[in-house]
Each structure stands twice: as structure tokens, then as C-alpha cells.
Amino acid sequence: MKPFIVPIIAVIVIVLISAAAFMLLIKPQQERIATLKQDVEQAEQVWARKVDAEQKLAQAKEELEQARRTLAQARAEKGIRMSLSDPQEAMVAMWFEMRHTAPPLLEKFITKTGCEIVQGSQFPAPAMSPPTALQGDLIQIPPGGSIPLTVRGNLAEIENLYRSLKYFPRILTIDQLSLSGQGDELEASFTLTMYAMVETGPGGVAAAPAARTGMAGMPGMAGMPGSMEPGMGGEPAMMQPGGGPPGAPPGAPAP
User: Fold this and answer.
1) Interatomic CA distance for residues 242 and 255, integer angstroms
2) Less CB within 10 Å around the terminal CB: N or C of the chain?
3) According to the model, what pLDDT value does residue 35 have?
4) Is residue 164 classed as helix, strand or coil in its secondary structure?
5) Which residue blocks in the chain are alpha helix, DSSP H?
């Protein structure tokens, strides 16, 4: 063998050994590193989505709690003590609301805005059936009807009445507003719709419980103050300008 052949063979052997080492050791590790890098990138994307989802979930929970607090505040400010799960008691509570509670509340509210009642509000005779919820836990007072009203005042007082609706202890809306007069002697005529929040059972009104009867065989509710016979003879509850609440003695001052 010639002397220069031995180094050549050694170089070839070293190259083959290096190539084999690369193929057997280094290349698999490089491929594994590339695969792990992709796995890490995918995991980071999943983690980012998880963090985003957790933030959205926390925000949704906070919004839900805020909505519940708002609803609870609305119930406290715009609700009345009435449970539609007991239809008989709900009916009597509606009688009392329409004859003894709502009319003086409305009169006092209008007077405080600076307006004067020209044509008193007139609530119809309460129905002889339990009220039902319109949507969710809202009921209309009176059920299915609006209240015609005419007030007198200047423009600022009438505007004050409109802007103060949100402070009334029931939910009020105004429709069919018309103005007449001139200067500081204006009259505003409109229809007013009143709503309140109550407790509801499944479907708004639950099945009626065992019947209880009060005076003259009419549905009754123990402990309810005032007359148990609202609307008898078709006489509605009324607010007269400057008068006292319904049921007060003649000449009683407004509340």
C-alpha cells in the first residue's frame, strides 16, 4: 500500500463516522427540538386563549353581579309587596294599591314638581281577577289601562315633572302629551302608564291555592288594612285637585 493512501482512508473513515453521528444523534435531536418548539408555540396559543377566556369569564361574572345588584335596587325602589304565586292575595293587594296607595302617591308626586292637577287622575274599579305579569316580574297598574291626567304649570314645572318620573316609587311612562296655553300658564294633558315590580311564580301566576273567603264571600286576606270591597258599585278611586287621599274624611289636607 502506498504511503499516501493511508491518510486518505483515515479521512474517509472520519467523514463517514461524522455523517453517521449526525444522522444517528444530531439530526433526531434537531427534529425533536423543532417538534417541541411547535408544541410550545401551540401551548402558548392555548394558554393565551385560556387567559383570554378566563378574563372574559370574570368580566361576565362581574356584569352578572352588577345586573343582579341593579335589579335588586330596582325592586327596592320600584317594587310593591305582592306575590303572584298567591293569586287571591295578589288580587287584594292590587285592590289596595289602586284605591289607597297609588292615587295619593301620584298626587303628592305631581304637587312636589310644582304642577297643579287640573283634571284628577282616575283609577278604574279594581278587577275581580288576580293580576298577571306583563314581562318577567312587571305588572301594570291598573292592569291593561293608562291614567288620563291634566296638569297646570309653567314650562319649567312641566319639564320638571317629566324629568322627575324616574324618582317616583313606581315605573311611570308618559304618552300622548299635548300642551295648551301661553306664557307661564300652560296645561299639559297626557296619559300616564304605571308599572311595578312584584314577586312571580312559574308562568307569572301559579295555580290558585285552596280558596279562602272574606266578607260577603269575597276573596280576603287577613291583616290587609282598609276596605275589603274596593270598587263596589263601580265607583273608581279618584284624585281631586287639592284634596286628601281616597278614604280620607272630607276636607282632609293633601299628604
Assistant:
1) 10
2) N
3) 86
4) coil
5) 5-21, 27-78, 87-96, 102-112, 155-163
The answer to whether the peptide bond before residue 130 is cis (omega within 30 degrees of 0) is no
Kindly indicate the confidence band of residue 156, based on its pLDDT and cuts at 50, 70 and 90: very high
- Average pLDDT value for residue range 31-54: 85
- With bands split at pLDDT 50, 70 and 90, how would you rate the model's confidence at 201? low
Where do we find the cell 276636607? 251
Q: Rounded CA gap, 31 and 33, in Å? A: 5
SS (H, E, C) 70-98: HHHHHHHHHEEEEECCCHHHHHHHHHHHH
Q: How far apart are CA 122 and CA 147, in angstroms?
A: 6
Q: Is the pLDDT of residue 254 over 90?
A: no
Q: Choose among 238, 109, 85: nearest CA to 170.
A: 109
Q: What confidence tens digit (pLDDT) does each residue in 66-86 have?
A: 988 888 887 788 888 888 888
Length of the chain: 255
Three-state SS for 149? strand
Burial 92-128 (b: 16+ CB within 10 A, else e): bbbbbbbbbbbbbbbbebbbebebebeebbebebbbe
Where helices occur in 97-207 by DSSP H, the ranges are 102-112, 155-163
